[in-house]
Amino acid sequence: MKSKMIKIISLCLCIAILASGAAYALASGKDKAENVKTAENITENTAEKQHEEAAAKSDTFKDETVYVLANPDGTVQKIIVSDWIKNTLSSEKITDVTELENTENIKGDESYTLGGNNTRVWDAQGNDIYYQGTIEKELPVDLSVSYKLDGKTVSADELIGKSGKVTIRFDYKNKQYETVKINGKDEKIYVPFVMLTGVLLDNDNFTNVQVSNGKIINDGNKTAVLGFALPGLQENLAIDKEKFEIPSYVEITADTTDFSLGITVTVATNSLFNNIDVEKIDSISDLTDSMNELDDAMTKLLDGSSSLYNGICTLLDKSKELVEGINQLAEGAGKLKEGAYSLDEGAKKLYTGAAALSQGLDTLSANNDTLNDGAKKVFETILSTAETQLKASGLTVPELTIENYTSVLNEIIESLDSTKVYNQALEQVTAAVEEKRDYIKSQVVEAVRSEVEANVTAAVTEQVKAEVTKAVKEQVSEKVTANVRENVEEQVILAATGMNKASYYAAVSAGRVDAATQKAVKSAIDNKMASKEITDLISSNIDKQMQSEQVSAMISQKVDEQMQTEEIKNTIKKNTELKMAEKDIQQLIEQNTEAQIQKVISENMASEEVQSKLAAASEGAKSVIALKTSLDDYNSFYLGLMKYTAGVAQAASGASDLKNGANELQNGTGTLYKGVCSLYDGILTMKNGLPALVDGITQLKDGAMQLSDGLSRFYEEGIQKLIDTVDDAENLIERLKATVTVSKNYKSFAGISENADGNVKFIYRTDEIK
Which of 182, 491, 520, 753 has the most CB atoms less than 10 A away? Predict the structure, then answer.
């Protein structure tokens, strides 16, 4: 038991190594991630190794990453979920379950069909599926961030630019649990999430940095603070906090001047607990084996840290420019800036030379070819750089030359026209909806059939009710008539003979009443029954009986019984089919089908996906137009230079005009250089972040080695203390088993199908404070 506890706490510290990669990833992230396409970057080597065994046991394996974009205090702004469905059986179809909205296939062109209960059937064609979307749902762990300055609670905005003793506290509230029976008692067992928080602090603004539970890495310029916590594990294991406290928050303290803070990243995962074999947890006898297992886990974790690190970097590095389709490369921008700078400097020298042209035309004319060749090479370099940038943005571009660049760029601008893109999108959406015409029509047919069947059923019910009512009324009439006749007989016999009915008929049977008297009595009874008084009484009683609750209930019961007979059901079915075959019903089905198809097309065209493509096309066209304008400016210079050199060879008398032209050229190249500088500055931040990234990876490896070397001290000072606090080994084992089981049960945040296995991790990112 104690050795398994060692594994839990040790693995938690091991993952702090992983968090060091996340902390250094902070150095390269400045813009809010508005479109997080991470499936291509988070995977494929390490994730595949981690999931091979689990995926082999199921039809599919779902690897889910949940990105939580939050304010500086931890309140959620937006949740983006990225899912990778590993098609372990290379199936043609994959049934998936998800609650996501605005879903987008981010790596392929596979489509899906919607089903009930949030199901989607992907046309996988044997491939893995990568998609992302958004969701509004309560998170399993709430993150809240609070701030203090010199012991006083302040808001994030109040801290900006301040100096003093700052405290930053990350609190984690675990809300994801199962109720488990332990030793005959219902207990709340929380999903054992390990929370890893990374913060990057500038050494110019922060000194004397400390963290409550975690690690600090200082490279001389920046301090990476890595903290970890396990909210809910204290309660799961029922360990007394006074004996041993498992951290449930991270608190950072430091001395600050001119306070500002970049974004923070917190990773939440329960996957560490999923690797524990609960079947082997039966005693504390396996204590000595735990440290070897920890070393193995650290080695695997270090090997796998790169993939998660790349994933976090992707989250932080994605910028609006990439979404708009312009992928600017730092190397190309640098070359373009150098070329523009050289061109500007050359123009200045040209202007100076033009001033002295009248005195040195012969010397200048001798250099015409060199000057023309240089200008051509500069132009070709600029065109090559522009071609590289366009290809990097995903456009298909032939080799750009001085002769063809205008026509090529005009074609690209035309292809990005919003009207053309809209028509293409409409054509694609219409084709996709038309493929589902049969399904849509079947839904319409079912709806119409339901309405027709309801009308037919109502008509049949009325007919059955009329027949039943008639039969019941006949029975009531017979009964009422019989009752009235008995009363009439009693009255007539008494009046005619002075005997009651029973005595009379007894006398008749004994032969004491003559035939004439009997005939007279019978005739009097028949006449009385035929009288208007009696017939009205019978009619009135029949009506009262028919309106009584008892008779009404009997009619309803008999109607219901008739409606449940096979004969009536077959009649309803037959009449429904006949009605469905009628021309007007078929026309109604066709009209409703067409209306539904047009509705789906309209909804898809108004979707965020289509609208974003239209916006991207418009922005892309603007960028290419700006690029063409810059190239046209240089082309103007290039053509002017060609004319200029020709004029130098032909006429020294044009020196004054040439000087003025050189002045215009200088102004134009200055404008061009300023524009190129703006382009270069726009991506300089990304380029400058690369050294910090390399340093971060180095620190990641160094930190892992340092933690591995310090395990002995951790065992002596931390683990042994935990072992000494355990009073009830059997209870702790049961709670640990329950914790691992609950962890393995939690496989997805946005949904997962019953025949799939999977895991999920959460990445919280808070905005910077500046």
Answer: 753
* Contacts of 698 by beta carbon, 8 Å cutoff, 6+ apart: none
- Residue 35 to residue 80: CA distance in whole angstroms: 9
Tens-place pLDDT, residues 740-757: 999 999 999 999 988 889
Residue 704's identity, in one-letter code, is: A
Beta bridge pairs of residue 64: 83, 760
Q: Which helix (H) or strand (E) holds 577?
A: helix 566-580
Nearest partner of 623 among 327, 290, 348, judged by Cα: 327
DSSP state of 217: E
Residues 6+ apart with CB under 8 A from 94: 59, 60, 85, 87, 121, 122, 124, 129
Contact 492, 528 (CB under 8 A): yes
Burial 188-209 (b: 16+ CB within 10 A, else e): ebbbbbbbbbbbbbeeebbeeb
In 3-state terms the chain splits into helix, strand, coil percentages (rounded to 5) of: 60, 20, 20
Q: Could you say which DSSP state residue 183 is in?
A: T
Q: Please name which of 94, 85, 262 lies closest in space to residue 168, comparing C-alpha atoms.
A: 262
Q: Are 699 and 19 in contact (CB under 8 A)?
A: no
Q: Are 247 and 169 in contact (CB under 8 A)?
A: no
- Rounded CA gap, 656 and 36, in Å? 58
Longest dimension (CA), the chain: 172
H or E element: which one contains 740? helix 729-745
Q: How does residue 760 score in pLDDT terms, banded at 50, 70 and 90? A: very high
State the number of CA atoms in the 13 A half-sphere of 652 facing the CB.
Answer: 10
Helix/strand/coil for 240 = coil
According to DSSP, the residues that pair with 94 across neighbouring strands are 122
Q: How far apart are CA 22 and CA 310, in angstroms?
A: 9
Residue type at position 571? T
State residue 411's pLDDT score.
77
Residue 201 has phi, psi (to 5 degrees) of -115, 135
Q: How many CB atoms lie within 10 A of CB 665?
A: 23
Interstrand relation of 76-87 and 129-134 (parallel, antiparallel or unpaired): antiparallel
Residue pair 217/699 in contact (Cβ under 8 Å)? The answer is: yes
Helices assigned H by DSSP within 710-728: 711-714, 720-725
> What is the C-alpha to C-alpha distance for residues 695 and 221, in angstroms, rounded to an integer?
11
pLDDT band at 26 (very low <50, low <70, confident <90, very high): very low
Residue carrying the six token digits 């009874």: 525
659-678 pLDDT, tens digit per residue, is 676 677 667 666 766 666 65
Q: Are 337 and 676 in contact (CB under 8 A)?
A: yes
Q: How far is CA 110 from CA 94, 106, 117, 423, 430, in A?
A: 11, 10, 21, 22, 17
Question: Strands 60-70, 756-766: parallel, antiparallel or unpaired by DSSP?
Answer: parallel
CA 306, 308, 314, 316 dihedral sign is: negative
- Collapsing DSSP to helix, strand or coil, 522 comes out as helix
Average pLDDT of the segment spanning 615-631: 73
> Is the backbone of residue 321 left (phi > 0), alpha (psi -120 to 50) or beta?
alpha
